[in-house]
Amino acid sequence: MTLPEENAGTLFIVATPIGNLGDISQRAIDTLRDVDIIACEDTRHTKKLLSAFSINGKTMSLHDHNERQKQEYIGEQLTAGNNVALVSDAGTPLISDPGFHLVRYCRQLGLNVSPVPGACAAIAALSVAGLPTDRFAFEGFLPSKSGARQATLQNVANETRTMVFYDAPRRAIDTVADIVTVLGEERYIVIARELTKTFETIHSAKAGEMHAWLSNDPNQLKGEMVLIIEGMTASASEITADVERALKRVLKELPPKKACAVIADLYSVNKKALYELSLSYK
Ligand code: SAM
Known about the structure:
This protein has helices at residues 26-34, 43-52, 67-79, 100-108, 121-129, 146-155, 172-183, 207-215, 241-251, 256-267, 271-280; strands at 10-14, 37-40, 59-61, 84-87, 112-116, 136-141, 162-167, 188-193, 201-206, 225-229. By secondary structure, it is of the alpha/beta class. The protein is elongated. The N and C termini lie far apart (68 Å). S-adenosylmethionine (SAM) binds next to helix 5, strand 7, strand 8 and strand 10.
């Protein structure tokens, strides 16, 4: 690791609005105005933001496909004493956005990296979801294909923390159908769409009801959305279609009491409820 000069510059990680320009902070404006270089996920997109605040900064592009090539140049600029801001198209850089490689590289060089915090869709959605926020899991984007999406949901089926996903509203009906299949129609979910924008909508319902609600209103399939899924709770841990499938399979190998004990342990489901269900198969 080379030690940076004492007068090395700082890499500022600057959050920008997720829709409403009024959400930019004064410090973000000042920082973008003062830095020598603004590294942008998309320069054309960021120039619109800059022009709204009459900022004529020098921009360069830094996106998923060139981040590793550009990190060296940015490292040199910082070492030479220039200040650099990193912005993404919306919200907080690095949160399902480019910047991780650059920040890691700069930190490895011992360069200053400083946050200018602000909007983040995941946190904004969580703040209004009405689900526990003392612990939560940010899961990023859900896969676009149903098979992979169901596998992702299966992996978090027993997660007890509130889960936050990014997803495209145009896929919302299919996504919620997958939630019903994997987590059951009783699982409580929240869709936070178009946050901070004109058509902001925050709707919470059990997965089965959410599916019907989305199917009845095509307007809910537009724009951008955050999907929040309640963690597994005593009520959400009731027997889902998946648990039932597993139970039926294990019942072929083990006597009912043992089969129910195994499934109850694996899926954190009530053993007695499973046993009662297993009796109904006879
Ligand atoms: N870095 C951003 C942040 O801090 O939120 C997220 C970038 S990620 C590429 C974009 C995704 O964030 C969208 O597909 C959507 O899931 C979510 N998102 C961004 N803006 C949103 C908004 N205004 N309302 C709801 N979701 C939004």
